[in-house]
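Two proteins were folded this term; both appear here.
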Amino acid sequence: MRKEATPDFFGRTREELAELLRSDFSQEAPFRAAQIYEWLYARRARTFAEMTNLPRALQRALEERFAIPSLITQHVSESADGTKKFLFGLEDGRSIETVLIPSEMRGERMPRRTLCVSTQVGCPLDCKFCATASLKLKRNLTTAEILLQIFEVERVTGEAVTNLVFMGMGEPMLNYDNLVRALRIITDPKTAMLGARRVTVSTSGLPDGIRNFANEGLNVKLALSLHATTNDLRTRLMPINKRYPLEEVLSAMEEYYKITGRPVTYEYIVFDGLNDTPADAARLAKIARRVPSRVNIIPFHPIDFTHPTGFAAELRPAPKAAFDRFIAQLRKAGVTALVRTSSGKDIEAACGQLALAELQEKPVVLDVKI
């Protein structure tokens, strides 16, 4: 009978593994922690027996106390545009989704493979345009479960992820400690995973989290899920705005820039008749000019498959003419405005569409390996 994985072993940082060996394996040389760290994250060892430069006695001691976890790939959906949506099973029987997005640029010397990872099972924020809101919050993901999304996608596809965006299921800042720990491991040169400049964290706007994040020294990119330029509309779209209104959130973003020196990104879904007017564009341009930034303009992807009600059921994509006029006005005002494509829309993997649709349509029996 296999033992359950100890949740706080895989997912430790280099410093945390060193402390573990000092306290629990004090007879071992300090450099053993660095070897274990490399085996776990750079060489992707799945058993302690694979760690061939460790003494056999240490391998056995680790095997007796710990196990290295894994995710189970329950289903992979592939879009006509090459996007892949992964349904992963977790140890407790719950599931999450992760999306691999191929490069949108043709002729790139090194094509990008961007992975959109999740940080929570479900989400508590109830954003009206987001399918994940229909799941509510079940729990935070562990550091291990965040990292294993990358490992499992690379194992299944046989190709390396080149960029990482924390824009999947959940609000990253509500899983702050595990988010930061995962980022320290991902961006550590010793793990050979990803450089900080290839990682973006998106938040709905938790000011304390943003300010704390600015002082972590991680040097990753930060994006704010904005979507409205007035408090009234933003609160209707994103109820979290009632607790943390625009002025407070934007002030925190400005502090982030002042502390890190990193330009910020604002994400803006354009809805028909709600936030697509010239006045909206003018206010958005004013916001974007407060600190160096860019604006990612996102088409609205309907979430009818979650059977939304009330205000959520009334949301519609802006017509192409209004969408294009909005972008043109921003650019004319000197704003760097980029359009995010609807990659994966045909498999419900586009921005805002993650809701475990495959699991809901076709229940999967979990066989979770530890």
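Next, the second protein.
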Amino acid sequence: MTSQRARDRLAASLQEGGIRDPRVIEVIRNTPRHHFIDQALHSRAYENTALPIGHGQTISQPWVVARMTEALLEQADGPPRVPQKVLEIGTGSGYQAAVLAALVPQLFTVERIEELLRQARRRFRQLGLTNLRTKHDDGKLGWPEEAPFDAIILTAAGDTVPTRILDQLSPSGVLVAPVGSPSRQTLIRMRGDGHGDFIQEELGAVSFVPLLGGIG
């Protein structure tokens, strides 16, 4: 259930589901998702479904991770881009961060739940990921001392994108986030035009845990 065959089936299902960027598909094929969940769920690690990780949180469906990652890399015109410095709000299990860290030079990830971050840090060490930094803090604050970021990704949904986070995006950067109420959420992408304005696109319906403030 954690074999290469299972990973290959997952990669094929991502392609069938419309994921086009071969780099994203290959990274998800090679990322050991079973390392990011409880051992009791290892048999389901490469199913295309969200799974619980404790503390009321989940590890996202692989297709959603792939789509959000692809959306960060896509250019409005021309070939896919590689943002040099990326901020993730909501480390969770660390799975999305591990996927991103394989594709971008620098990743900064913030998690409000200390126990989840402790576990994620251990997984990052085991996988030898050295191009990411972690922080235990209120994700709604972002990481202002490291701003600006070329790309920002949120893995929890608020009614809107917090202004304090959007302010940390470079003028020509891209932000991908779920927004909306628990019953109706949409994945959006915001692209900076280089002059202080942002163009927003809707990428489809999603379901995420709520974006909460504070630390735990």
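The chain is about 25% helix and 30% strand. The helical segments are 4-16, 22-30, 62-73, 95-101, 114-127, 163-166. These notes refer to the second protein only.
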